[in-house]
């Protein structure tokens, strides 16, 4: 299959880099973290068999630069960026949207503010921790992360953040040691460099803003028929999983378990993409035990 078509969209305060593959109804993929459009490389080609698949680097990542690198980030602005892409690529017609992690938070806001543009949203582990009964604990975690970032730098802050995401009682020593990886291709190595280069922006500007976001639960209830909440089979009890499961319970909707954990899109791309295609195709919302 030929590579994607690359485009650039000028939005308020930034220039978005996006990729388009395939033909058919539009499927917009919203990445989380620092992965950008490349986070969907393992699934995009297969999904493009039935859809026009668009993925992009959210504003502020290295390939979608901000006019002002220090500009505070807001979920509302990121959701508006997604809306602008929908307007460009699927004018006047509702589109399918799949989003992960912080991208799924932007997806939730897009759904509640522009429901006429979203046929269905699959939201995988949006860490909207403010909906949880113990939200105060997570606010304290975010404060510790930012304080550590200011005092000690990126890697110590990232370690505090990672520890706060684990399920209660997990011992970091129980995490399997990384297996040796083959030498990376030039393209993969460039992706790793971008990911690491974007970490200060993500941890310093995206995490505190996005994880403080409070979704409009009444509005989500109204549009819940277009929402598929999802989590990883391996991330039950972890912090990013819990808000998705909580929202599914609160809204009375079902909950789809995808293979892997929070990063199952990267660790199990074939299985993840196959289930995503099934959910998009049929709207199936198979309930797996919570």
TrEMBL record:
Record's protein name: Alpha/beta fold hydrolase
Stretches of the chain forming a coiled coil according to its record: none
InterPro entries to which the protein is assigned, alphabetical: AB_hydrolase, AB_hydrolase_1, AB_hydrolase_fold
Keyword Hydrolase assigned: yes
Gene3D superfamilies given in the database record: alpha/beta hydrolase (3.40.50.1820)
UniProt entry keywords in alphabetical sequence: Hydrolase
Key word Hydrolase present: yes
Pfam families, per the entry: Abhydrolase_1 (PF00561)
Taxonomic source organism: Nonomuraea spiralis
Domain AB hydrolase-1: 25-175
GO molecular function: hydrolase activity
């Amino acid at each position: 299959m030929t590579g994607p078509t690359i485009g650039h969209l000028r939005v308020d305060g930034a220039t978005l880099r996006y990729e388009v593959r395939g033909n058919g109804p539009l499927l917009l993929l919203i990445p989380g973290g620092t992965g950008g459009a490349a986070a969907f490389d393992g699934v995009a080609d297969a999904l493009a068999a039935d859809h026009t698949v668009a993925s992009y680097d959210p504003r502020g990542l290295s390939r979608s630069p901000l006019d002002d690198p220090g500009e505070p980030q807001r979920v509302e602005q990121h959701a508006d960026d997604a809306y602008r892409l929908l307007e460009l690529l699927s004018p006047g017609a509702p589109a399918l949207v799949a989003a992960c992690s912080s991208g799924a938070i932007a997806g939730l806001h897009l759904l509640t503010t522009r429901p006429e543009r979203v046929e269905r949203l699959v939201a995988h582990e949006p860490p909207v921790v403010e909906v949880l009964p113990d939200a105060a604990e997570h606010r304290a975690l975010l404060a510790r992360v930012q304080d550590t970032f200011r005092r000690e730098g990126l890697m110590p802050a990232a370690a505090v953040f990672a520890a706060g995401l684990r399920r209660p009682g997990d011992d970091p020593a129980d995490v399997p040691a990384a297996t040796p990886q083959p030498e990376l291709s030039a393209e993969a190595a460039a992706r790793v460099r971008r990911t690491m280069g974007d970490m200060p922006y993500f941890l310093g500007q995206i995490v505190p803003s996005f994880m403080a976001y409070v979704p409009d639960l009444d509005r989500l209830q109204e549009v819940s028929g277009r929402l598929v909440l999802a989590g990883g089979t391996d991330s039950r009890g972890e912090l990013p999983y819990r808000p998705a499961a909580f929202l599914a319970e609160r809204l009375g909707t079902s909950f789809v378990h995808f293979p892997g954990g929070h990063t199952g899109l990267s660790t199990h791309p074939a299985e993840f993409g196959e289930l995503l295609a099934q959910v998009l195709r049929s709207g199936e919302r198979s309930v797996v035990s919570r």
